[in-house]
Amino acid sequence: MKVVLPDNSELELPDGSTGLDAARAIGPKLAEQAVLVRSNGSVQDLRQPLQEGQEIQILTTRDKQDPDALYVLRHSTAHLLAEAVRRLYPGTKIAIGPPIENGFYYDFEFPEPIGEEALNRIEDEIDRELAEGRTWNREEISAEEARRLFAEQGEEYKVELVDTADGPITLYTQGDFTDLCRGPHLQDSTPIKAVKLTSLAGAYWRGDEHNTQLTRIYGTAFYDQADLDAYLQRLEEAQARDHRRLGTQLDLFHLSDHAPGMPFWHPKGMVIWNELEDLRRRENLRRGYVEVKTPLLYDVATWVTSGHWEKFKDEMFIVPYSDRELGLKPMNCPGHMLLFGSALRSYRDLPLRYAESSTLHRNERGGTLHGLLRVQHVTQDDAHMFVTPEQIEEEIFGCLDYASYLYDLFGMEARFELSTRPDNKLGTDEEWDFTEGALRNALDRRGIEYTVNEGDGAFYGPKIDLHMTDVLGRSWQMGTIQLDSQMPARFELRYMGEDNAEHTPYVIHRALFGSLERFIGILIEHYAGAFPFWLAPVQVRVIPIGEAHRAQAHELAERLGEYRVDVDERNETVGKRIRDAEVEKIPVVILFGEKESDESLAVRERGGEQSTRSLAELREYLATL
Ligand SMILES: [Zn+2]
Ligand SMILES: [Zn+2]
Question: Which residue, 31, 36, 112, 549, could crosslink 24 as a Cys pair with Cβ 3.0–4.6 Å?
Answer without folding.
Answer: 31
